[in-house]
Amino acid sequence: MQAVDSSVGTAPDSWLDWLNDSALGAAMRGDLWLYPMVEVVHILGFSVLFGAVLMFDLRVLGLSKNIEVTALARHLLTWSIAALLLVVPAGVMMFSAHPHDFASNGVFILKLCLIATAGVNAVLFHVGVYRSVDRWNTAVATPGIAKIQALFSIALWVAVIFCGRLLAYT
User: Fold this and answer.
1) What is the CA radius of gyration of the chain?
2) What's the CA gap between 150 and 53, in Å, rounded?
3) Along the 170 residues of the chain, how does pLDDT read in single tens digits?
4) CA–CA distance from 55 to each of 14, 74, 90 (Å)?
């Protein structure tokens, strides 16, 4: 029986290997300034995203009651989308530099889980209490569940920031 060389003509062992071996992964590891510049873009984008989320959540908590919740939501959505267009590609680029390290890092996994939880919280807010926003849009007390979700949102995003900073040390 003849041995078959399984390394010839086959795909990499995993998508992590593929990403690590990609031109992007090599560039992110090899260029002195690329990773730090991408990290700055990621941080700036995340600052805008968190700022938009924080402003909306603070409005839901009762600050600036003279501003319509719906008008603020429409305004901040543009900023949030723009921020995501910076954050997501920059995050993928940074991940590509050391995919195996990130994928096995508990802090990184926690960060992704917190982001996913924040997304679920936002979806539940919009398909739930936000449907009645016309009743509490301006100068009316926000429903308790909306306030709880806003506090939860703020806590989640602060935890995401904490994990992002901790990644530099783990």
Assistant:
1) 21
2) 9
3) 444 444 444 455 699 999 999 999 999 999 999 999 999 999 999 999 999 999 999 999 999 999 999 999 999 999 999 999 999 999 999 999 999 999 999 999 999 999 999 999 999 999 999 999 999 999 889 999 999 999 999 999 999 999 999 998 98
4) 41, 12, 24
**Residue matched to tokens 């990773």:** 35
In the structure encoding, which two tokens stand for residue 54, read together? 């924080």
Q: What is the DSSP letter of 143?
A: P
The model's pTM:
0.86
The number of C-alpha atoms within 13 Å of 5 and in the hemisphere containing its C-beta is 3
CA dihedral 115, 116, 119, 121 (to 10 degrees): -100
The answer to whether the Cα torsion of 168, 41, 25, 84 is positive or negative is positive
